[in-house]
Amino acid sequence: MSELFFHPKVVHIPIALSVLMPLVTGGLLLAWWRGWLPKRTWWVAVALQATLVVSAFVAIDTGGDQEERVEKVLPDKYIEAHEEAADVFTGGAIGALLIAGAALFLKGRKGAAAAIVATVGTVVVLGLGYVVGQRGGALVYEHGAANAYITNGANAGAGAGVPAAEHDDDD
């Protein structure tokens, strides 16, 4: 049963990295500009951004694995909106990765300019990640996507906006 819930576990990695990357790239850029750290430390930004991209692809894959089941309980338009946002997020993350990687190999001001653009790109990716997370959360908490996995009779009929049957813990 745990493989059914792998997507919600995986999606936290790219989302968390999208929050951290503007801080990491901004800090490394400042340290590079001030001479506190050598340019080669920018590899940290590239490696973390690559991790974000790979984890975004894994999240898309695991979400696709669950799509057919969730389509049985909600309209396809909500799922497609989340999927499209995830694709845009991943595309933006790839773009930021390519620019960050270029910053390592470009000399002088061109390298610094690429690092600045990559840092701005991570802020854009953060915004795109917010949209993906918002739409994914709406699938579960507003539209009832989790109902596709409810198997006990008491909660099977709970739909969007309908609270699940309450369980009394008193003996």
Would you mind describing this structure in some detail?
With 171 residues, the chain is mainly alpha-helical. The protein has one domain. 71% of the residues lie in helices and 0% in strands. It contains five helices and no strands. It has helices spanning 6-10, 12-34, 42-70, 76-105, 108-141. Helix 2 runs antiparallel to helix 3 and helix 2 packs antiparallel against helix 5 (108-141). The chain is elongated. 31% of the residues are buried. The model is unreliable at 153-168 (pLDDT under 50).
Short description:
With 171 residues, this protein is mostly helical. The chain contains 5 helices and no strands. The two termini are 29 Å apart.
Shape: elongated
Structural class based on helices, strands and sheet pairing: mainly alpha
Flag low-confidence runs: 153-168
The level of helicity is: over 70%
Question: Helix and strand layout, with pairings?
Answer:
Elements: H1 6-10, H2 12-34, H3 42-70, H4 76-105, H5 108-141
Helix pairs in contact: 2-3, 2-5, 3-4, 4-5
Keywords, please?
mainly alpha; 171 residues; single chain
